[in-house]
Design goal:
31 strands; six-stranded mixed beta sheet; disordered N terminus; mainly beta
Length: about 625
């Protein structure tokens, strides 16, 4: 990391210090400039992008940034489906860089992941990306080198459809949500490695105990506290990088800037939300104004009206609003741990504001988040629900699947071992049994060394839950179970085989992995075969939600929607959850597969999916590959 003094001296000598306002591109500014219907962002088929450094100003403070064409966020790229795009990326940094085109279907060598698809772009060099556009919708791009992404190396993409857009609207805005730390991402990562709860200042207090006791009963509350204490865990560990170190941004603006988007009453306004943050989930609402979700991860969905939605890191959602009154509305984006927020304003005229809602009570984890069926236990926070798998999960019918992919027998319901936290000893590898009610227990045929502090023994589908903190809101909150693809899925075949992958961790040591193996220790890829229909089942053995991103392809979320399953490239896997997606790989090559929480990926929750051209995959491959990519 360069020092701020060194940067200022160098930049001043070269005349490259940018005024704070010049870093914000026109489309990201408040008022008329932000209205994309009257603005020409970077468009066409050929582009030059220069990666450099500058100082970023946020609510009166300045810090170092990695910029693209001198801007944070990076330029809005507007493309058209069917065109071939050429992008020359020039690196003026003193370190390697890269650009990954998130969610874009393209040739393997154009995906932009150093150590997996190309070597990266060295200082002073230029790399040319060239690929055809096979899709339309809202996407984004970002660095896949080190921790540059959080320093500002991210930007939005809009791809216009070749034909008629099924979404009707009069005006549109791109809303890029992100987080920034003045400590510097490398410093934050080091502090989390030393103590994973460094930034959790929302621990439960004695007054909290008495409030819960009055609501749930003294003995039930005491038993709950004793259980968490025995496991040496905190039910307030929703996020490991909180507002104690993070500032939250809309289009590069902090809440004090009050980014404003204008509208005429009665207009249909399309808001294209992109969560480009490194570590932050946002709960998004516009008090007094319903939103109609029309697109998820760039692909159209059947419209569903809601009042709030949770957007995970790297997800995108397009919504349409229609404000009819001559008044301002607050665009409220609250972090899922409710430690902070960023807000903007939607208004008929500049200078108008609306009340900013106070931060709501922080959520707490329950036994359900541990993968344990404690629905019958009194006093659990939020009234922990039964562990029965909802009908919308789509897990029925696995009995005929080939489960040899990793030697995983199909498991039914799921608990969690907490040997790493001083609780009961871990189940042995490959253990499968029954709980006291006779339910099948989850198998764990993966390494369970020091990097696996717990395993979920009764994971369940949670696709019908809206996300942390939204379970009990008095209004509608979006769930994955509600999403339906607008167009029928292109592949209606039943999966021919299933691969089960576990999300694992030892949070106290800040170790994150798949199947108990950090990427630096993996020696073989997960094998897919071109053209096969494959079911990928993920089991979250950790106490945190993970946005899992698969490069190079979309997957169909198995949510009970039959031939209209929502197609996504990133999905949030909740604590103690077991969910499935169906995949038809089309492009041969090695593709990154990882948690999109930047620090979790950096710590080892990263793998490679290798799509082979042959007819058969090695049923035992999938847990042992790695050559230092992204480390």
């Amino acid at each position: 990391m360069f020092s701020r003094r060194t940067f200022l001296q160098t930049a001043a000598a070269s005349g490259s210090v940018l005024a704070a306002t010049s870093l914000v591109p026109a489309w990201a500014r408040s008022g008329p400039a932000a209205n994309l219907s009257g603005l020409q962002p970077l468009s066409g088929t050929e582009f030059d992008l220069t990666v450099g450094r500058a100082e970023l100003a946020i609510d009166g403070r300045t810090g170092p940034a990695v910029t693209v064409n001198g801007q944070v966020p990076a330029p809005l790229l507007r493309w058209r489906e069917g065109d071939e795009i050429t992008l020359r990326v020039h690196n003026t940094l003193d370190a390697d860089t890269s650009i990954h085109w998130h969610g874009i279907l393209l040739p393997n060598e154009m995906d932009g992941v150093p150590g997996v698809t190309f070597p990266g772009i060295r200082p002073g060099e230029t790399f040319t990306y060239r690929f055809p556009l096979r899709q339309a919708g809202t996407y984004w791009y970002h660095s896949h080198s080190g921790l540059q992404e959080q320093l500002g190396h991210y930007g939005p993409i809009i791809i216009e459809p070749r034909g008629t857009d099924p979404v009707r609207y009069d005006r549109e805005y791109v809303i890029v949500l992100s987080d920034y730390t003045f400590e510097g991402p490398h410093r934050v990562f080091q502090r989390l490695m030393a103590s994973s709860d460094t930034y959790n200042f929302q621990q439960r207090t004695v007054p909290d105990f008495f409030r819960e006791a009055s609501r749930n009963g003294f003995m039930a509350t005491l038993r709950d506290r004793l259980m968490w204490g025995q496991m040496r865990m905190s039910p307030t560990d929703i996020s490991d990088a909180t507002a104690a170190t993070m500032d939250y941004l809309i289009n590069g603006h902090g809440p004090g800037d009050n980014w404003t988007g204008l509208f005429e009453p009665g207009e249909r306004v399309r808001l294209r939300f992109i969560n480009a943050s490194a570590m932050t989930f946002f709960n998004v609402r516009i008090p007094g104004l319903p939103m109609t979700v029309v697109q998820a991860d760039g692909l159209n969905v059947q419209p569903v009206e809601t009042d709030e939605f949770q957007i995970g890191v790297a997800e995108t959602y397009d919504v349409v609003i229609q404000p009819r009154d001559d008044r301002a509305y607050t665009l409220m984006c609250e972090t899922n741990d409710r430690s902070g927020y960023v807000r903007g304003t939607l208004a008929p005229r500049m200078g108008m504001t609306a009340p900013v809602p106070p931060l709501r009570e922080r959520p707490t984890l329950t036994m359900r988040d541990m993968g344990m069926d404690h629905g019958s236990m009194p006093g659990m926070a939020h009234g922990a629900a039964s562990a029965e798998q909802p009908a919308a999960s789509g897990h029925a019918g696995h009995g005929n699947m080939d489960h040899s992919a990793h030697g995983q027998g199909h498991a039914g319901m799921a608990g969690m071992d907490h040997s790493g936290h001083g609780a009961a000893p871990a189940a042995p590898a490959g253990h499968a049994g029954h709980d006291m009610s006779g339910n099948d227990m989850q198998r764990h045929d993966h390494p369970q060394g020091p990097g696996v502090a717990g395993v979920a023994m009764q994971p369940v589908s949670r696709l019908d839950e809206p996300g942390a903190g939204l379970e009990d809101v008095p209004h509608r909150a979006l769930t994955y179970a509600q999403l339906r693809s607008l167009d029928p899925n292109p592949d209606h075949r039943a999966p021919g085989r299933e691969i089960e992958i576990h999300l694992t961790s030892n949070m106290e040591r800040y170790m994150w992995s798949f199947d108990g193996v950090r990427f630096s220790e993996v020696v073989e890829p997960i094998q897919f075969v071109k053209g096969e229909r494959l079911r990928l089942t993920m089991v979250n053995d950790t106490m945190m939600v993970h946005p899992i991103h698969l490069h190079g392809m979309f997957f169909d979320v198995v949510n009970g929607a039959r031939h209209n399953m929502p197609r996504k490239h990133t999905i949030n896997v909740k604590p103690g959850e077991k969910l499935s997606v169906d995949v038809t790989p089309e492009d041969v090559g090695d593709w990154a597969f990882h948690c999109h929480l930047l620090y979790h990926m950096h710590a080892g929750m990263f793998q490679v999916v290798s799509v082979r051209p042959g007819e058969h995959a090695d049923p035992h491959a999938g847990h042992r590959m790695g050559h230092g990519a992204h480390q």
